[in-house]
Structures are given as structure tokens and as C-alpha cells.
Amino acid sequence: LLLGCELTAHTKSYTFQVDEEDDSDHILALSVVCLTDGAKDECNVVEVVGRNHENQEIAVPVANLKLSCQPLLSLDNFKLQPPVTFRLAAGSGPVHLAGWHRIMHREDASFEEDDDLSEEDEEELPPIMPAKK
């Protein structure tokens, strides 16, 4: 599924969350953050707000965009686990965020890999020989 949202002076945050009763694994990947039409030449700082392993809220800046020098940033599918909030910490935008949302149904996913190879399946590697001088 594709994800898109826009942060502005009037809408400074967007929260992506999933149903807590959902038994699926969710991955949210952020691909691109960019300034859109109407943006001023000012610093626009976008933060990701989530929870750490101790369930404490943390905010991490992921983009600092300015129309004259860096209007777009590719985040190469920066993966996040919902719930997550995107916040315009500085600037007035508009800043557009694009990415994708993947749902893995646990009954469909095969987490067990066949690591037990029989001796017939294993290839015999040649012994390491000393280098010739």
C-alpha cells in the first residue's frame, strides 16, 4: 500500500497507526521527503516520533529541507514500525512525505527457514592451500 501525507503550518503532524487488535506485522517505509508548491526558502525540519525499546517517546530529525539548497531528500525506504508520528518541527512547509506500508499476515509468513541441510546437500569445499612463493 502506498502512503502519502503533507505537513504544513496548519497541519504540523501526521500519525500513522494500525489497529492494535491486528495480528499482522506492519512495516512502514519512508521513501521521499520533499518541499511542494508554496514552500518558502526556510529550513523545514521533519521529525519522526516513535517509541524506543523502553516504550519512551523519542523524536529523531530525518530531514532538513530548504528550497534553495535541498528541496528533496531520498530516504531509501527508511523502515519504521507503527505507530509513528511525522512532525514538522521547524518551518511552515508544505512538506510531502511518500512511502509504502507492507502488511505481513503471520499465518502467511514462513518464519521458519530450513537451515538443516542434509550431508548430501552440503557442498564439500576444497582445503585451503598455502600460497606459492
UniProtKB/TrEMBL annotation:
It is found in: Nucleus, Nucleolus. Residues 110-125 have a biased composition (Acidic residues). Its main location: nucleus. Keywords: Acetylation, Chaperone, Methylation, Nucleus, Phosphoprotein. Residues 3-102 form the Nucleoplasmin core domain. Residues 109-133 are annotated as: Disordered. One of its GO terms (molecular function) is RNA binding. GO terms for cellular component: cytoplasm; nucleolus; nucleoplasm. GO terms for biological process: chromatin remodeling. It comes from the Eukaryota. Interacts with NPM (via N-terminus). Forms a pentamer with NPM at a ratio 4:1 (NPM3/NPM). Two pentamers form a decamer. Plays a role in the regulation of diverse cellular processes such as ribosome biogenesis, chromatin remodeling or protein chaperoning. Modulates the histone chaperone function and the RNA-binding activity of nucleolar phosphoprotein B23/NPM. Efficiently mediates chromatin remodeling when included in a pentamer containing NPM3 and NPM. Belongs to the nucleoplasmin family. This is Nucleoplasmin-3. It comes from Origma solitaria.
